[in-house]
Amino acid sequence: MARFDLNKGERFNLKKSEGLNKIQINLGWKSGADLDACAFLLGADGVIMDDADFVYYNSENRCNPESLALEPFDRAKFGNKKNWRNETIPFSKDGSVIGSADDTGDDDGDGDDAGEEMHVVLDKVNPKISEIVFCVTIYHGDEDGTTFGKVREPYISIVNEDNDEELCRYNLKENFANETAVVAGSLICDEEGEWSFEAIGNGYEGGMQTLIDIYA
């Protein structure tokens, strides 16, 4: 099946009823900035129900990247929390959304391809979750003045992990000259339990804290 390219506001139906269960969310860009991907698992009221449902590089809820089993901090095993975070990856309370290791990007202005990926297992999603929002923020962007105006060719894509087929892609063409946080897209569950992906592309000033204020 050919990839479907989305415009802002459009949706792509993910046919869970046809066996689609494991999907990969790719957030990619070209930039000299350090960008971070994150996800918010939202209840019916549009906010997270648990701190662990904010999945980002500094999450306290973490798992072993090989077994995907919960890996609480153990000083005897890791020595300190920095080592623990380097050797584990973030995931949601229900285990359905798995984050990625931090990609700090490149140091020059040309900007090679960079990005982070997240993974979702649809049949593990807590039934009380109605939406999963995927965002990208610029690390310390509000402190050093770096905005998404420096970021080139940002996109979000959905891939079927069972066969590596890219199902849809949204190329963010908006000019985010002052923004340091972008809501790229979201997975939305309807009353029948079927999921769709919506291209959002909304930018905000205030970085990650602004997103926390909205969704937490």
Describe the structure in your own words.
It is a single chain. The protein has 216 residues and is mainly beta. The protein has one domain: sav2460 like domains (Lipoxygenase-1), CATH 2.60.60.30. Helices cover 11% and strands 39% of the residues. A six-stranded mixed β-sheet has the order 1-12-11-3-9-8, with no helix packed on it. Strands 2-14-13-10-4-5 form a six-stranded antiparallel β-sheet, with helices on one face. The protein has a two-stranded antiparallel ribbon with strand order 6-7. A hairpin with a 4-residue loop joins β11 (152-160) and β12. The longest helix has 9 residues, at 207-215. The radius of gyration is 17 Å and the shape is globular. The N and C termini lie far apart (37 Å).
Give the tags.
4 helices; globular; six-stranded mixed β-sheet; 216 residues; Lipoxygenase-1; mainly beta; single chain; 14 strands; six-stranded antiparallel β-sheet
What name is given to the CATH topology?
Lipoxygenase-1
Instruction: Provide the helix percentage.
Output: 10-25%
Strand order of the biggest β-sheet: 1-12-11-3-9-8
In terms of structural class, how would the helical and strand content be classed?
A: mainly beta
Let me know the largest β-sheet: 6 strands, mixed
CATH architecture: Sandwich
Structural shape: globular
In the CATH hierarchy, what is the class? Answer: Mainly Beta
As a percent range, the share of strand residues is 35-45%
Alpha-carbon distance between the termini?
A: 37 Å
Task: Write a brief caption for the model.
By secondary structure, the chain is mainly beta.
